[in-house]
Write a structure and sequence with these properties.
This protein is α/β, with parallel strands linked by helices. The chain folds into four domains: 3-170, Rossmann fold, CATH 3.40.50; 188-330, Beta-Lactamase (2-Layer Sandwich); 340-482, Reverse transcriptase/Diguanylate cyclase domain (Alpha-Beta Plaits), CATH 3.30.70; 508-745, EAL domain (TIM Barrel), CATH 3.20.20.450. Helix content is 45%, strand content 20%. It contains 27 helices and 27 strands. The chain has an eight-stranded mixed beta barrel, surrounded by five helices. Strand 20 and strand 21 (540-541) form a beta hairpin. Bound molecules: ligand C2E and calcium ion (2 copies). One calcium ion binds next to loops.
Length: 746
Amino acid sequence: MNSTIHSSEDDLVFLDEPDNEDTSVASRPVQTWRIMIIDDDPDVHSATTFALGSLEIQHRALSFLHAYSAAEAREILQKESDIAIILLDVVMEQEDAGLQLVSHIRKTLGLTDVRIILRTGQPGYAPEIDAIRDYDINDYKTKSELTRTKLYTAVTSAIRSYEQICAISASRRGLEMIIHASTELMALQGMQNFAAGVLVQITGLLGLDTEGFVCARHILAEMPEAGEDLYVIATTTSYANGLNRTLGQLGQVTASDIVVRSLNARQSVFEPEITALYFNNVAQKDFTLFLNTGLHLNEMDKRLLGVFCGNVSVGLDNVMLTSRLHNYAFYDPLTGLANRLKLLQTLNETLLTSLKNRSALSLIDIDHFAETNDALGHQFGDQLLYSVAQRLVTSFGEHCQLARVGSDTFALLGEENMVCPDKILTLFNSPFDVDQQEVQLSATIGLIKLDDYDGDGSEALKDTNIALKRAKMNRRGGYEYFTRDMGVEIRERVLLMHALRAAFEHEKLFLVFQPQIDMRDGRVLGAEALLRWKTEDGRFIPPDQFIPIAEYSGLIVDIGEWVLRTACFELVHLRSLGYTNFQMAINVSQAQFSHPLFMQSLNKALADTQAPPNFVELEITESMAMKDPELLIKTLHQIKQLGISVSIDDFGTGFSSLSHLQKLDVDKLKIDRAFVNEIQKNSNEGSIAKMIVQLGKNLGLSIIAEGVESEMQANTLLSYDCHMAQGYLYSRPLTRDDLHTWLANR
Ligand code: C2E
Ligand code: CA
Ligand code: CA
C-alpha cells in the first residue's frame, strides 16, 4: 500500500448516511465484520461508512462502531469484542492521542487480533516506523490517500489478515486446551476413567454442551465379561443408562450406525449435528467417541478435533502402559492372582470396616514344592502353581480375595465360614493335571481370625505366616490358627534364633542330667536329660525360652537329634562305669516327633551309640498327645516295637480325655510339678496329684512326680502310692561329671 496516486473519481465522498450500524452485541448478526472508526471529524465517519457500507468480504457484511475521541474509544473497547478493524485518526485531542490509544489497545487491553489502520490528515504526523512495528499497525495512510478504492483494498486485506490471525489464535487456544486436556487425562487411571475424561475435555474444547458416549471395540481388562462386543464405557448424563452395556443395548440406531462406521473405517466421521471421533491406539483397544454436537462443526473445529484425537491416542497408550505397570505392581503374572501388595491393600481395607468381624486370612503353602520344582523343572512347577491357582479361583474366587504371596504360597482372605481349613484342604484331595500327568499335592495352612485383631494388614500377614510355620513344624498337610502367644516379641525371637543356631553350630549347647529316684529306698532309677545353653558372656538361657524358638524355627529337629545321640552316648558311658540299671529319659518335642525322619534318626542314634533301647525312655507332652492322634498312635507303636518306653510329661496340664489316653500305648505318667507344688500340707485329701496317681493306676501306668522339693511332698506322694520322683529334694540337674560324682557318693 504505497500508492500516492490521487484521482478525483477516487476521492472520498462525504455524504450523510443512515446510521445502519448497531453497536449492541445482542442484536448484532453474528456474521459481520466489525469495523471501528475513531476520528474526531464526524465527516470522516460518514464518508467511511458510505464508502464501505455495501462491501461484503467473504460473504460477510461490515458493521460499524463509532468513537469521536480517544476517551470514547477506550470506553467502547472496554465493552466490545470481536472487532476486526480499527480505522484510527492519529491526531485527535492531542498530537499523539492516536498512538497512545494504539498502545492502550495492544498492551493494556491485550487485543492482539484486531487490525489497525492509521489515518492522518497531515503527512507530517506519520508515526515512527518503530511504532508501526511495535504496535502491529496494519496500514498507515494519509486521509488523502484513502480513496474509496484504496479503502476497499486496505480493509479487505486487513480483514483477511484478521481472519488468519483469529484462526491461528483459535487453534493456539485449542492446542493449549488439548495440551491441558492431555495432561489432565494422563493423570486418570484405567480405561473407563480415561474415556470419561476425554468426553469432559472434548465438550470443553468445543465450548458446547455436547452429549455423547465412548464406545470400545476390544475386551478391556476392567470388563473381561464384555467379550468382543462393542461396549459403552463412558457417557455423559443423557446416555448414562447405556453405561457398561453393549452398543446394541443402548438402543440408539443413528448413534450406533455412525459409531460402527467410524470403527470399521478406522477414522472419524462428521455428519450434520453428530460426530464419531475415532481414536486409534497401538494397544489395539481402539475406541470411538460419539458426540451429539447439535450443529455443524466448522473446518477449524474438525482440524482441532483431529489434533486432539491424535494426542489422546498417545495419551491412551500411556494409560495402557500405566495400567500394565499397575498390573505388574499388583498382580502376579504367572497366575493372574493379586500379589502381596494388592492383598495388603485389601487386607487393610477389610481391617477398617465391619467386615473385619467375620473375616479370616489364611496362607496356603504347597508341601514340598521346592523338591517338585527341582525334580521336574521350573516350567512344570509353574504349570503346577497355575493349576493350583485355578482350583482356588474356582472354589473361592467369587467370595474371597485370592493372592499369590510367595513362590508356593497363596493367600485367601474372606469370611470365616469360607476361609476355613476343611474347605481349603479338600481342594487337595484330588490330583492336579499338568502336562497330562497327575500330580498329588498337599498343603499346609496357617490362619488368623481377624475379629478383635488389633494390628494392621502387614502385621496380620506376618502373624498368619507365624501360624503357617507352626503348622509346618507340627505336621505337613495340617493347619494352625494364630494365637496371641505365638506373636510375642517376634524380634527378640528372631535375634535369639540366630544366636541359638550359632550356639548349636559352635557346640555351645550341652546336656545336664537330673536323677530320678525311688522314694521308698532312695535307689537311683535313672535321670532326665535336660538341655542347657550357656552364652558367650556366661549367661544361661533357660530352655523354656529357647526350646520354643528351636521348635518354631525348625532347629529343634537337628538339636533334638543331637540330644538323642548325646543322651544315648551318656547312657552307654554310665553303663561302662557300672550303672547298668540306669534309665535315660529324653525329652522329645512335638515338631521333632512328627518329623517324617524322626524314627530314622532314633534308630540311627541307637545303632551308632549301641544304647540298649529298654533303658531309653522318651518324654512326650500331653498336648502333643492331643494334636494328631493317628500319627501319634502309629509312631508310638513303632517306638514301642524298638523296646523304648514312653512317658507323658507335664501330665494334668493338657486336659486329655480319658478315652483318648486309653488308646495311647504309653508306660508312664509324669505328674506336672505344678500339682506337686500344690502339696503343701498333709491335709490335701482330694488333690489333683492324688487323682492323677489313681488314674494312672487304673490305666496300668507307672507314675512319677517331678519338682519334688520337700520331704512333706515326698511323704504325701508316697501316701498316694506314687513312689518315683525327681526334684531338687534329691538333686538339681547335674553336668556329666557332677552326675558321676553324685552317683559315686550314693
Ligand atoms: P520338663 O521336661 O518338665 O523338665 C523339668 C524341668 O523342671 C527342668 O527345667 C528342671 O530343671 C525343673 N525341675 C526339676 N526339679 C525341680 C524342682 O524340684 N523344682 C523346680 N522348681 N524345678 C525343678 P529345665 O531344665 O529348665 O527345663 C525346662 C523345660 O525345657 C523342660 O521341662 C522341657 O520341657 C524343656 N527341655 C529341657 N531340655 C529339653 C530337651 O532336651 N529337649 C526338649 N524337647 N525339651 C527340653
Ligand atoms: Ca521332661
Ligand atoms: Ca515336666
